[in-house]
Amino acid sequence: MALIKWTPMDVFGDLDRAWDDWPMAMRRVMSPALDVYEDQDNVVIETPLVGVDPKNVNIEIEDNILKISGHSQHQTEVDDKNYFRKEIRYGQFHRAVALPKAVAGDKAEATYKDGVLRITVPKTEEAKPRKITVKAQ
């Protein structure tokens, strides 16, 4: 029986190796990171989509669930590079998240600037904070 050298657990290295072993078809769909926050009147969602053409992005809001999907394309003239690491992912992406407040999805607006997609969705009147004045008697 051969001895196996002990190595401490390397979570990120182990995940990288597991990811590399996945079939390409299973790792085509990426899930972009999101920031979701609110101001007085809106819920705002921001996600970095650097290099993605805004025409290739789909946004839907249904039952207070925001869905962002689309694709990015790898465009290069030469594909026979001698890579040491290839971490930039191209292909399909999809992300769905429940919004924390009741929103008016039909009034949502989206902008794309400097590689960041920003979606602003107005809160419904029921979701906005209300100030209640105390009446003295």
The whole-angstrom Rg is 22 Å
Text of the CATH class of the domain at 26-77 and 87-127: Mainly Beta
Q: Going across the biggest sheet, name each strand in turn.
A: 1-2-7-6
Total E-strand runs: 7
Assign a percent range to the helix content: under 10%
H/E series, N to C? Answer: HEEEEEEE
Task: Bin the strand percentage.
Answer: 25-35%
Structural class computed from helices and strand pairing:
mainly beta
Contiguous runs where pLDDT drops below 50 for at least 5 residues: none
Helix count, DSSP H or I runs of 4 or more residues: 1
Q: Which overall shape is indicated by the principal axes computed on the Cα atoms? A: elongated
CATH topology call of the domain at 26-77 and 87-127: Immunoglobulin-like
- The overall average pLDDT, rounded, is 81
CATH architecture of the domain at 26-77 and 87-127: Sandwich
Biggest sheet features:
4 strands, antiparallel
Give the N-terminus to C-terminus distance in angstroms: 90 Å
